[in-house]
Design brief:
By secondary structure, this protein is an alpha/beta fold. It contains 9 helices and 10 strands. The termini are far apart.
Length: 244
């Protein structure tokens, strides 16, 4: 039986979250935040903490579910006061598309130059292609001054030069075939290999339904916080003072 939860998620997974919530009968409230918050992990953390504080007061929910990974330490230090806080053991959202952190790790060991593409990143305009500089400049213009924008674009260029493969993965939502072709075109633009990976919805489905085993998920007790471990477990729960 699906547990009633309050979902807080990144909009990169909004289509998939709505779909699998419907499939597993999850009817709890959902709040989505834009992917741009990842550009400043401290800001992401503050926004998510405020959302958790609000969800913590939801008497209809047994737990607060984060559809996020560690996300550049953006979730490090988050806590709920009165409810369990649950999230997948994942560095980022690609684990949620692939189905397990071990699968993600295996791919990255075999081809560390992989740059991941997924429909949600493309819907949000964050998947680089031939026009990625213009897209990023437009997204940054209201948040950064011109010097900061140029510095961010140079950092992005440097990052792109470190990759050699475009890895496309999705959960086969209707209409996603067009995104695969865009990812293939991006690979051609950058001179990369192109690989496709079949998505596995199991991790996302079980996160939303409440099937939380310790191998794949972290259940943070009330009053404890999320802490990065730097090992294969990725995250752990600890008292707030220990995670400071």
């Amino acid at each position: 039986m699906t547990r009633p939860v309050h979902v807080i998620a990144c909009n990169v997974l909004e289509t998939e979250v709505h779909h699998w919530a419907t499939v597993c009968g999850q009817k709890g409230p959902m709040t989505f935040f834009e992917i741009g918050l990842h550009d400043a992990p401290a800001n992401l953390r503050a926004v998510l903490q405020a959302a958790i504080d609000e969800a913590d007061m939801d008497d209809t929910a047994e737990a607060v579910v984060l559809v996020y990974g560690l996300c550049g330490l953006g979730t490090h230090g988050l806590y709920a006061r009165t409810k369990p806080l649950v999230l997948p053991r994942a560095h980022d959202c690609m684990t949620l598309f692939l189905g397990h952190c071990h699968r993600y790790d295996k791919v990255m060991r075999e081809d560390p130059g992989t740059y991941w593409y997924a429909p949600g990143w493309q819907r949000a305009g964050r998947a680089p292609g031939a026009d990625y500089k213009e897209t990023l400049r437009e997204q940054y213009k209201d948040r950064f001054d011109e010097d900061q924008i140029e510095a961010l674009l140079e950092m992005q260029d440097e990052s792109m030069r470190q990759h050699s493969t475009a890895g496309y993965v999705d959960l086969a939502m209707p209409g996603d075939a067009a995104f695969q072709e865009k990812a293939r075109a991006a690979a051609e633009h950058f001179g990369w290999q192109f690989k496709t990976f079949k998505g596995d919805p199991g991790l996302l489905r079980d996160l939303l339904s409440g099937a939380w085993d310790d191998e794949r998920f972290l259940v943070v007790p009330p009053g404890h916080c999320i802490q990065a471990t730097g090992d294969e477990h990725i995250i752990r729960a600890c008292p707030p003072e220990a995670g400071a």
